[in-house]
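#struct-pred

JT: dropping the chains for the assembly here, can someone run the whole complex?
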Amino acid sequence: MAPAMAEPFLRIEGVTKAFGPVVAVDNVTLEVGKGQIFALLGGSGCGKTTLLRMLAGFEEPTAGRIFLDGRDMAGVPPWERPVHMMFQSYAIFPHMTVEANIAYGLKHERSMTKATRAARVAEMLDLVQLTPLAKRKPHQISGGQRQRVALARALARQPKLLLLDEPLAALDKKLREQTQFELMSIQERTGVTFIVVTHDQEEAMTLSDRIAVMDKGQVRQIGSPTEIYEFPQSRFVAGFIGSVNSFDAVVLGRTDSHLRLSVPTLGEVLARDIPGAVPGQAVTLAIRPEKIHLSKDRPEAANAFSGTVRDLAYFGKDSLYRINLPNALVQAHAVNARRGDEGARVADWDDAVWLSFDPASAIVLVD
Amino acid sequence: MTPDPATKGGFRRWFDLQGWAQLVIGLPYVWLILFFLLPFLIVVAMSVATNTPTAPPFSFGGEHPLVNLGAYERVVTDGLYLRAFLTSISNALVAAVLCLLIGYPMALGLTRVSKGWRTILLMLVILPFWTSFLLRVYAWMGLMGKNSWFNGLLTEAWNLLVPLDWALKSIPMMQTNFAVVLVMVYTYLPFMILPLYASLERLDPTLDEAAMDLGSRPSQVFRDVTLPQSIPGIIAGGMLVFIPAAGELVIPTLVGNASQPMIGKIIQDEFAQARDWPMASAVAVALLVLMVVPTMIYSHYQAKAEGSK
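RK: done, full complex below.
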């Protein structure tokens, strides 16, 4: 019997990186399980790329330690780490063919014979569907194909960890969606642990098993995409992932299952209870636009408010409404489920509407 | 009433639309034709003339055929010219290789230092050009002379390293091919550094990281990534050193061995001392062909490589 998984595959322990007075990564601790796709999500300058470069060995942490598969990576140079990176610019060698690029890392595998090396390259070419382009030079293939060369090259040596720096940023929207699924299926087939750095929350949500949201060098929240989206723990995370309506509020007390809030701009609101909230505490109420239900008549709901439609943007599959309440402006997202030019919309410009939301989708944030 | 734009100001319109562009493109052509092609054709014409004791000292026709290839015949048969060509090419080749070996690390270093340092160091590379070239050659003559501190220092270092029997009072540097190569390397080094720097500076540093990430040590990264990508710079720098070095006149005249003349000295002597203009012209044309043909072959392949991009 194999021993129980005591040690996580990758453990980052209190890692800090300072460049002079600038602290790029501030005391980050996180764990990644084997075979996961883990996303580091954050805006530019949040430290996600610096963290990735420390995993690759291009930067040494100022403090803290990194363990990969139980081994302390301190002082291990990039060329000795079982970690490969797919660079944002792809960094494909322009003077080598597609094939030679993919084979590049393999020449350091002393134990490999020429034949097994060639077989491995062929296998990689097949994995990323580039076999017909093997003899081409990088400037003779498209951006999407170059991305796949970079992926195949990084996977060829069977790394323990594959680092992907903004893997889809350089692709156009359509290709990006298709490539997302390709990346996931390749990860599944190879079983390699992926660490993806991205500033694109949608990319992080669809690709990864777990996400670490980073801000100013710190990890603000770690969790599954659902946890991050549905249960954000801070205003920053709630605002960074998706859009959100947020209101200042004060805790009034508890009902059986919900928290009673006084929201100066709305009125009294029932919200999802959080542990530790005490009456009189100042909190933030956050509601996702798609959790807000619009109707012409007053709904039978706990949280219902009336207002008028100020703006509406039609996106085809759904519409975004901006609704004027007496003291607030609220965004609501409604799916255009019905077809037709009249029936599709719940309301039109300047219509009086009722908006309501389930207490369970009203998030209370302390931080 | 607005005038029809198609008929308004015929010349002005033509000039705005295409005339200016043709003028800009045309000027360098006019320059090259007037000051390069025409003089070259004159030299070619002289090279097939016959040497006569007149002024100018050549003529066409007379008792000789209009085209007299005698001078070219001597270029390929007379050992004097062949030896001079060989000396020129070997000196220039050694100088180019040494410039490459010295210049490459310098150019690479230039790309790796901070912006501020880069400006200062680039400046230092170009700075010698601000002093007269002749002055700099004379300075080297002083340094290499028997009684200079520089020669003394080298001699002492030599004597320390070799057995007593080989000890020297001073190292005979002047009037040798070594001196010629040394001064040529010194003079032409910036011509190697600058194109190398230009080509190395364009390289993407993430490619180095990618190679390192895939398991290559820094030395392997240099061999696999940096060096192959800088080949155009190496060739450009090599030609910028080799071509003028092969035709160099001043340096071998001042510090070289008179019994092993380089081809520039031969051309000078034929023109000025022997007053054999056809002979001088033939040697000059031969030198040009020797330099231009490899260049053309190179640019042909270069264009082919560019074309496939």
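JT: nice. The two ends of chain A are 44 Å apart (CA to CA). Helices of chain A lie at 48-56, 98-103, 114-127, 143-155, 173-190, 201-207, 225-230, 235-240.
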